[in-house]
């Protein structure tokens, strides 16, 4: 999940921290800035909100509820098979985050039988839709398989999307002779450009206030 944003359970919209702060400045404290639904007061009401969206086959709600099953949150018992089942449904409906989590589950055998090719396939689906961590993990997987050229290609993309770990990995690969100086320089420039684009006065203010 984006560390600069929070998922609102009423409408499953991702609200950036800067926008949340702006809403508070407008006097919107206890409700969603998007749909104006009051925030849930407890876990039970939060679960009801999510389940309403699930009944409408909202991909993000199905993914979100699967994650709650995985972690045993909102009063649900820990149920990894159910989580994987829900992530699979959410992925089929277009949830990028569901593809990412299925990739993690299958690649590492986390709650399911390990199936690295299947995990890679889910990360590829997510990466093609702009999921930066999936792209980064594809790079790491290729490096572990000694496909250094392809690893660099993946990590270059995620570094240019502002992923600091990808940039550090390219630096390490350059020092080991697996990436060129030009590639590292290009990744460094791209990372800097992405970091600059993501800057926001409201976001920085929200961070300072602990959002």
From TrEMBL:
Belongs to the sel-1 family. It comes from Thalassiosira oceanica (Marine diatom). This is Uncharacterized protein. SMART domains: SEL1 (SM00671). Pfam families: Sel1. InterPro entries: Sel1-like, Sel1_AlgK, TPR-like_helical_dom_sf. Transmembrane segments: none annotated.
């Amino acid at each position: 999940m984006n560390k600069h944003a929070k998922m609102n359970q009423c409408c499953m919209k991702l609200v950036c921290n800067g926008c949340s702060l702006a809403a508070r400045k407008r006097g919107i404290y206890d409700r969603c800035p998007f749909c104006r639904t009051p925030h849930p007061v407890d876990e039970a009401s939060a679960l009801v909100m999510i389940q309403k969206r699930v009944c409408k086959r909202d991909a993000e709600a199905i993914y979100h509820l699967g994650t709650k099953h995985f972690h045993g949150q909102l009063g649900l018992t820990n149920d990894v098979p159910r989580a994987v089942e829900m992530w699979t449904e959410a992925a089929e409906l277009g949830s990028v985050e569901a593809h990412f989590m299925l990739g993690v589950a299958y690649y590492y055998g986390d709650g399911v039988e390990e199936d690295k090719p299947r995990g890679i396939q889910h990360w590829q689906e997510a990466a093609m839709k702009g999921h930066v961590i999936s792209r980064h993990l594809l790079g790491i997987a290729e490096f572990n398989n000694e496909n250094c050229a392809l690893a660099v290609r993946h990590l270059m993309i995620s570094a240019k999307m502002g992923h600091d770990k990808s940039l550090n990995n390219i630096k390490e690969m350059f020092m080991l002779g697996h990436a060129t100086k030009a590639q590292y320089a290009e990744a460094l420039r791209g990372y800097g450009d992405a970091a600059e684009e993501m800057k926001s006065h409201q976001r920085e203010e929200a961070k300072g206030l602990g959002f």
